[in-house]
Amino acid sequence: MQSDELIRELIERVAGDVGLIIYTLRPKREFTDEELSAELGIEINDVRKSLFALYELGLAEYRRKRDDETGWMEYYWKINYDKQNEVLRRELLKTRRKLEEKLEMEEASVYYICVNGCIKVNYEEAMEFNFMCPRCGGFLEYFDTSLIVEKVREEIEKIDEMLSNLQ
Ligand SMILES: [Zn+2]
Q: Where's the HTH TFE/IIEalpha-type domain (predicted)?
């Protein structure tokens, strides 16, 4: 996956469609949320929400200035396009850590699942239930986690590939 595609996916997830629209606008200079709202014809609250989401990600910054006429605080925004790879790397590493945790957990545990799909329990719980599902009475079968482990490993590999493409 290309980094442009990745960043779009991330922005859409965190800052929504409006965030994506703002990011793809590539504004050349600072702008206020009012200006942007008027230009895009999008509710100012939605614009603000998305801008702050971009800010949380590290992809936007602002400075505040008091308007001489109204006396109100104005936010002057700027999108940090040069932070794109840095943000992507951070998010990919975060996802990688979660996958590693999942991997450890799956590898360390033995699960049993109901043949009818009601529950998934660990060995101790399965013993307590006499290997019978407490909901439907069906058998609790040994659950092979090797497929999950393999899948998670593949995902981690994919992330590593993306990370090396970011350099
Ligand atoms: Zn069951």
A: 1-85
- CA of 139 from ligand 1 middle (Å) equals 7
Which whole-number Å values give the CA distances from 110 to 55, 94, 121, 165, in the listed order?
Answer: 42, 26, 9, 36
Separation of CA 134 and ligand 1 centre (Å): 7
Cα 153 to ligand 1 centre (Å) = 30
Residue ranges of domains in the chain, CATH in brackets: 3-79 (1.10.10.10), 95-166 (no CATH)
Task: Report how far apart, in Å, the C-alpha atoms of 135 and of each of 41, 79, 119 are.
Answer: 53, 53, 8
pTM of the model: 0.76
Cα 136 to ligand 1 centre (Å) = 4
Give Cβ neighbours of residue 24 (< 8 Å, ≥ 6 apart).
8
Tell me the CA–centroid distance for residue 143 and ligand 1, in Å. Answer: 14
Residue count of the chain? 167
Model confidence pLDDT, tens digit, residues 118-129: 999 999 999 999
The per-type count for the chain, helices as H runs and strands as E runs, is: 6, 6
Half-sphere exposure of 109 (CA within 13 A, CB side): 20
